[in-house]
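Subject: Interface between my chains keeps coming out wrong

I've been trying for a while to get a sensible model of this assembly. When I model each chain on its own everything looks fine, but I need the whole thing in one frame so I can look at the contacts. Pasting all components below, labels as-is. Any help appreciated, I'm running out of ideas.
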Amino acid sequence: MQNYLDLLVKNGKEIASKGKVAGYIPALKKMNSNYVGISVIDSNKNIFCSGNTNIDFTIQSISKTVSLLIALEDRGFDYVFSKVGMEPTGDAFNSLKKLETVQPTKPFNPMINAGAIAVTSMIKGDSSDEKFERLLNLFRRIIGDDSIGYNKNVYLSEKETGNRNRSMAYFMKDAGVIDTEVEESLDVYFKQCSIEMNCLQLAKLAYFFSNNGTNYEGQKIVSDKNCEIVKTFMITCGMYNESGEYAIEVGVPSKSGVGGGIIASSSKNFSIATFGPALNSKGNSIAGIKMLKMFSEKNNLSIFR
Amino acid sequence: MQNYLDLLVKNGKEIASKGKVAGYIPALKKMNSNYVGISVIDSNKNIFCSGNTNIDFTIQSISKTVSLLIALEDRGFDYVFSKVGMEPTGDAFNSLKKLETVQPTKPFNPMINAGAIAVTSMIKGDSSDEKFERLLNLFRRIIGDDSIGYNKNVYLSEKETGNRNRSMAYFMKDAGVIDTEVEESLDVYFKQCSIEMNCLQLAKLAYFFSNNGTNYEGQKIVSDKNCEIVKTFMITCGMYNESGEYAIEVGVPSKSGVGGGIIASSSKNFSIATFGPALNSKGNSIAGIKMLKMFSEKNNLSIFR
Amino acid sequence: MQNYLDLLVKNGKEIASKGKVAGYIPALKKMNSNYVGISVIDSNKNIFCSGNTNIDFTIQSISKTVSLLIALEDRGFDYVFSKVGMEPTGDAFNSLKKLETVQPTKPFNPMINAGAIAVTSMIKGDSSDEKFERLLNLFRRIIGDDSIGYNKNVYLSEKETGNRNRSMAYFMKDAGVIDTEVEESLDVYFKQCSIEMNCLQLAKLAYFFSNNGTNYEGQKIVSDKNCEIVKTFMITCGMYNESGEYAIEVGVPSKSGVGGGIIASSSKNFSIATFGPALNSKGNSIAGIKMLKMFSEKNNLSIFR
Amino acid sequence: MQNYLDLLVKNGKEIASKGKVAGYIPALKKMNSNYVGISVIDSNKNIFCSGNTNIDFTIQSISKTVSLLIALEDRGFDYVFSKVGMEPTGDAFNSLKKLETVQPTKPFNPMINAGAIAVTSMIKGDSSDEKFERLLNLFRRIIGDDSIGYNKNVYLSEKETGNRNRSMAYFMKDAGVIDTEVEESLDVYFKQCSIEMNCLQLAKLAYFFSNNGTNYEGQKIVSDKNCEIVKTFMITCGMYNESGEYAIEVGVPSKSGVGGGIIASSSKNFSIATFGPALNSKGNSIAGIKMLKMFSEKNNLSIFR
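Reply #2:
Try treating it as a single job with all components included. I did that and got this:
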């Protein structure tokens, strides 16, 4: 296994030069585009790492999986999906045209930004601080590491420059999708995107979904049902508007973030996290996709097989 | 003339019951849907009024004509139209999808909300108060009445509930169309929409455009060129997405507002304002359009004749 | 099992009255809206039927699964997906706006009409008759029944009234997506949609996909890889723009047709076909979805579990 | 005047090199991109020509003005506008997305291709030949020249390659906008686009609209009202999606064609035709627009003045 992962990282490093680090905020832009790492946990809980797996990076959109979980636990299936849809969109993750063109206004799914912001607005708590703390605590329990936190520089940059997300949020506020105070909900959202961990820690998140809500230490944290819902979205909408192609080529429930991380939760034998900040044109880690494709093919991981 | 205007008002009252007062804020909703008025200034400066012409109402989108004028005077043609386009859209006045779907982002024209907000952000001034004061003063000079002010209730309601406009503004901020502080620009915009006058005063605004920048009292206030630009937009985009039909049926440069007002500035003989808060499905005063159609046909006012 | 299927049919019949038989051509419209049937083949090849499983109906969009298979076999993965994408769209199955709005023109996936027409145009053959014959023969081998044919009335009606599909085809011809003669490709497409079978026969098609290209009689007909591709599309795009919700609620690769059929190919234990011509607003059999949801939940069939 | 026109042509020639001849069919592509001409008829019927005014070219979209006239005369205002709208679109002339996205399906105006095809389908006649003959005869009477005909090469090329127009036509057939046989209506449409004349002859068409339906020889051919309608569309939609900018910069009812012609019908003193096959990115003659802008400014022709 170790040798194979080393080979994957070598392949990932080669392709990384064709990608581009996310440049919309300085804090992301300065990340080394050459970093590539992969961490794998097998069904016997053995952990394998290769490449840059101890570098901290922000998880960005990967956080949408856990915010959906907490919203489902807090509000229940019916409430969450009365406000947010279940359909892939075919549009970019930061698109908002369908909020206007498809009536009634309902973000198409919880994995695009609009849907994720709406989901985050549903987290229970008396203040944005409390809401975020509840979410962060869930991350800490899932990963089994109380040191998990968020990157303040990234958060502040996101908050300052996040006007596209702000635009969506006000649109949804106007349409009654969001009923909380907009800036407070955005505050939680920008913080959750700035949660930071390394590739190995991220593999624990993948493990948690692979095992339907039981973490690496064996604690059952959320219901099977809610994990199954999240994994379904990971297939249909987890890789932005490259989800369909990724389902064909990898076929494992996965979620990417523009920070360069990807989690892949095979229900069979492997929980995988990859890291590689150089992104392709759809916003997915170019090395990550390469490695996951190779790993899935070799191990027959596609759930469509 | 007086008899004919009385006849028009009678016709307007009959059709008003088929329209609906703008209901998005309480302050507008409580307006009497049965009000109908028309004020006409002829080429000899004679003024004729019929119906409810002394009721104050907010001018709403009609303010976009004067904010465009001041932006053109402040910034010049090239700057203004580097940020805002000149094309009709075919979409509703509060649509923002084209901000996303047509690249680079540029609101299509200064008469839709997105374009008008961008235009307002260009008004010179050290603060939103100073910007608005400069705009309000221009209104007072044009109409020749220093008592013109804005309706605070309406303004506060617009500010509180204007999240669709806020959404557009943040989108344009993100895209670099607006480079001022968003909430400050919106503040000026919400105030300008809340400027209040009666139908007779509004006819003075129509007169000013009919006479290419010279007001009823004979003062030349802005350049012919800038008035001509505004009048062109009044034909191509002045009546929301009913502009094309209105150009066919009335054919006079006009601008409507959801407060129920319309100005019509024939370059020939007549300057007209109508009032009628009951709106049709496109957001235009149903009685106003009826009266203007009859008046234009009788007097051969279409500029396309 | 038999009792359980009878219960499902009872549930299906109850909900069928809330749906509506496809009405765009007379031949479909006259189908009895009360028909409901289900056929199940288990992993031991036992066959269970309940309800109206011996009524012939046209398979419509279900044919897209087999036409994609033959195009993949004829042209290879790279060629097919150079012309047709892999992404869900979020739009209706007969939408063509993305052909214009997303450049370069490429139908988003092979399960929407535009993509399916493009796929059908790739089937090899010297004439439209030969192309269709090759496709029909594949159906016959898969189902193991040489009597499978198509309904001429339905075909002629589709051909006569299929101007929306014709519109898409000419758009794609113009954009270079289709390089065959348009009317000939449409002819094959209209015929494939008119292929007729009953629910039990349809279950054999589901079996074939469940078993990665081996039919009920044990013949290996196409490659595992190509079946896997089709099953992936069945999850991401198989149920029109209800695919995402269906993936959450049923979670089994499935394909529906407006004739009222659905195939569901669990890779675990069951191959299922349902029939119920009363459709919901998305164009899927309302009774079929109800029965499949119940069956999947009871038997834990979701591939995301 | 002659000297001034010579100066305009000099300016036109200079800018022509920045444009591009329409290249979608060979017959258009081989036109000399350096041709520039202008013909002006003043209010005393004096005719002035400068540059390449005796070269025949196809009038393309300029034909939409006359086909609208004949449809209005044949069917009346109410019928025509029950099928085709009156609003500018903001989209390209060959766009069809709004046919799908705005319900009920109704091409937005008679100057975009979709609307023009629908209008042409309304021309009375027992066959496509008779329909076209009636249209051609109207052209001959308007221009006062029985030798006016169409270019068969261009017509055949348009017919062969016109799949985008075919796509629109079938969409509209499906939606009930067109109720004639599609290929027959397209046949008339492709022929009308291929009607050929030179710049001087085209100026006679401009004269006819300037004079509300009376031709250069003094014959009253159609009603004032219908000419007024056409001229209104010439302002709001006559220059493709550059109409708004052109209204600001030239301000004269005008219609362009991708063959390089433009007619401009000032109701004041001048009827103008320009020719210059090099087009800008919106599909309008780059030299033509330059010359018309200069001419309008010098002579104060804007109807918004």
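Reply #3:
Confirming on my end. The first helix of chain C runs from residue 2 to 16.
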